[in-house]
Amino acid sequence: MKTAPLRPGGFFCLDFLPGSCRDMYGPYFCASQPLVQCGTEHMGDTRLPHIKSLGRMLAALPMFLVLACSEPASTPPLIGVVVDNVRIEPYQARSVYVGRLVAKDDVAIRASVSGYLLERTFNEGEQVQAGAVLYVIDPSEYVAALAIASADLAAAKANQTNAERNYRRGLELLPKGAISQVEMDNLTAQKLDADARIEAAGAQVTAAQVNLGFTTIKAPLSGRIGRSQVSPGDLVGPGSGDLTTLVSVDPIEALFQVSEATYIDQISQRVKANPTVSDLKGIEVTLELADGLQYPEVGRIDYFGNRIDEATGTMEARARIPNPYGLLVPGQYVRVTLQDTMLRDGLFVPLAAVQADQQGTFVLVVDANSTVVRNNLQLGDRFDDMILVTGGLEAGDRVIVRGLQQVRPGMLVEITATVGVAVDGAG
């Protein structure tokens, strides 16, 4: 058996009880020798009474251990939490999309006939009325063409009058044998040719009148005119491209892409088969401009595409928005909000109760046994401080809204308060 090293003074110590031995340097510790070894080395020491006293202390040690172990452990208090009940409330379904404004009518103004531009009668960017004169092309060439066509028509009429007269004479002379049947056939052909020439001359007059009318370019609709691409003196014609553009102002349209799920959801609430745009008249359309300003006018959906885009899984939709003051212009990007006027019932949970991690969104629920349970959620739209739940909860479930940082699934908790429920004894 190994012995503990000898300290100066020649004394050994007990190895497991700190401060059990003394030597010339005072009390010290030992952690290597059993009791019998250390006691044996001290048997001849003058400090034997100290060893015996220490032995009695060691004999009493198990009693202290038994007493210490027999004391009951204290139960930690339950963590208090505040809960709110999942409840059913009426709501109006709402969805938001990014859209772009387009004019209901967008017209490119072009020249239909060639000629030098004499006049531009509008101010760029102003409102013009349907029928207002925009450009004037030099009409002299077309005035002359109309005069020639009119003269040709007069000649054709004169020739037709003579042919008609000869035809009638032939009808009188043929029964008397004064003319042959061949001569009568020639008179008939001359009459028909004269009639046809009148039709052709009349058409030439009409064409000349139309071309002359094209020298005055008018606004086809009321709207806002764009920048002119030509100036007086320019030679313009059908190959000159757009002279300017004209767009309608009121109403204006918003184009946006609706997800397939939204389209099916909205349609299924209203019709069972063969849906049309009229089935969606209950959906209100509002716009939010780029600066966050809410546009005051309310529009309606007037068009849905005829197919789902395979690449994006969306369908094109269009809403018509009143624009009486011309605040909206084509090309603007807006947030399009679809709001259903029909009320539905849905499950709502406080936004303060909703958490998220890598597994998704969830809430902590206190079950009937006061145990915390995690419920994963499927969420819908947000309404103020509440959020619509489409899956994962039932009406009446108690979700934790305060004390979330102190609890974990599986813990027992104490409900200290329920949101919206008065505390007993409160005045």
Can you put this structure into words, describing what you see?
The structure is a single chain. The chain is an alpha+beta fold and 427 residues long. It folds into four domains: 74 residues, no CATH class; 140 residues, OB fold (Dihydrolipoamide Acetyltransferase, E2P) (Beta Barrel); 97 residues, Efflux pump adaptor protein, beta barrel domain (Elongation Factor Tu (Ef-tu), domain 3), CATH 2.40.30; 74 residues, conserved putative lor/sdh protein from methanococcus maripaludis s2 fold, CATH 2.40.420. Helices cover 25% and strands 33% of the residues. The protein has five helices and 24 strands. The strands form six sheets. It has a six-stranded antiparallel barrel. Strand 18 and strand 19 form a beta hairpin. Helix 3 packs antiparallel against helix 4. It is elongated and about 145 Å long.
- Examine the coordinates and then state which fold CATH places here, giving the name of the CATH topology of the largest domain: OB fold (Dihydrolipoamide Acetyltransferase, E2P)
> Between the first and last Cα atoms, what is the distance in angstroms?
81 Å
Category from helices, strands and their pairing? alpha+beta
> Mind telling me the CATH superfamily name of the largest domain?
RNA polymerase II/Efflux pump adaptor protein, barrel-sandwich hybrid domain
Q: Tell me which CATH architecture of the largest domain applies here.
A: Beta Barrel
Assess the beta-strand content as a share of residues: 25-35%
**Averaged pLDDT:** 80
**What is the tally of beta strands?**
24
Radius of gyration: 51 Å
| CATH domain class of the largest domain | Mainly Beta
Helix coverage percent of residues? 25-40%
The order of strands across the largest sheet is 4-13-16-15-14-17
Oligomer: single chain
What is the ordering of alpha helices and beta strands? EEHHEEEEEEHHEEEEEHEEEEEEEEEEE
Main pleated-sheet profile: 6 strands, antiparallel, barrel
Overall domain count: 4
Shape: elongated
